[in-house]
């Protein structure tokens, strides 16, 4: 029963991630190339870099760098999930919501794809 529920959720997330739309899932699987923690002492500047660019909110930065606010509880979970995906070599789908102060898209959710 648990496996069936997990498969259903994975299918639902994959369907949600199939198209680019403003403030939402950034169409399809991406490979995470790296993870950066930089800048502020509070850990608020965590960036992931993917193999392709998605920009549903027309942010001004045009490279595949995506911001995670690592100083928030949700940001810590997203960072840990991203690190797991990088380590395991898994693709991810990202939900992007808005732009940060440097013009990079903000990660609001992450889904590891098998």
Model description:
With 114 residues, the chain is α+β, with helices and mostly antiparallel strands. The chain has one domain: OB fold (Dihydrolipoamide Acetyltransferase, E2P). 27% of the residues lie in helices and 32% in strands. It has helices at 2-16, 73-88; strands at residues 30-38, 45-50, 65-68, 91-99, 105-113. The chain has a 5-stranded mixed beta barrel. Strand 1 and strand 2 (45-50) form a beta hairpin. It starts with a helix and ends with a strand.
Shape: globular
Radius of gyration: 14 Å
Which percent band covers the strand fraction?
A: 25-35%
First and last CA, distance = 19 Å
Q: Mind telling me which CATH architecture this is?
A: Beta Barrel
The CATH topology corresponds to OB fold (Dihydrolipoamide Acetyltransferase, E2P)
Key phrases:
single chain, 114 residues, alpha+beta, OB fold (Dihydrolipoamide Acetyltransferase, E2P), 27% helix
What is the secondary structure topology, with strand pairs?
Layout lengths: L1 H15 L13 E9 L6 E6 L14 E4 L4 H16 L2 E9 L5 E9 L1
Parallel strand pairs: 3-5
Antiparallel strand pairs: 1-2, 1-4, 2-3, 4-5
